[in-house]
Design a protein that fits this description.
With 167 residues, the protein is an alpha+beta fold. It has one domain: Nuclear Transport Factor 2, Chain: A (Roll), CATH 3.10.450. It contains 4 helices and 6 strands.
Amino acid sequence: MGDQADAALLHDLLAREAVRELRARYGWHAARGDYEGIVGLFAPDGLFELTFDGARRALRGREEIRTFLQATMVPGMVFPMIHNDIVTVDGDEAHGSCAMESRSPDGKGGFSGYYHDKARRYDGRWLFSERRWFFYVPVFERSGLGLDGKPETGLAAIHDRKLGQTA
């Protein structure tokens, strides 16, 4: 490889690792009920989208995210285990998906799902510009998005059309 290709590869690998660490830090703060720590992982205009109490919610900006998390988080409520990381890097932006499992404090229950994430480098630090949560269990919640964050066009979308469903 030439110097330019080596530099591009190094940039890509460092960015992927930074996004993985961003996700891990999110889990660390979530397990401890540290909503301020989570808020600090989002860009100032970041989006956090999730289903809560049966309704889809989109929280835009750190203040909306903070208000929601402050009212809903307590230490030990979730124990996030992040895995199946997929990260695609394009300069100072990245997108991808990861799975998350959480056990209940008594070890008898929990839930699992996946995130569609977009991250961006701000002043040399990677932050979430978008974080969208979808359940696997207890109820499978399709995002309708592919790994690139765009509407699915693959087999899952074809199956949905056959069944008359939309994500």
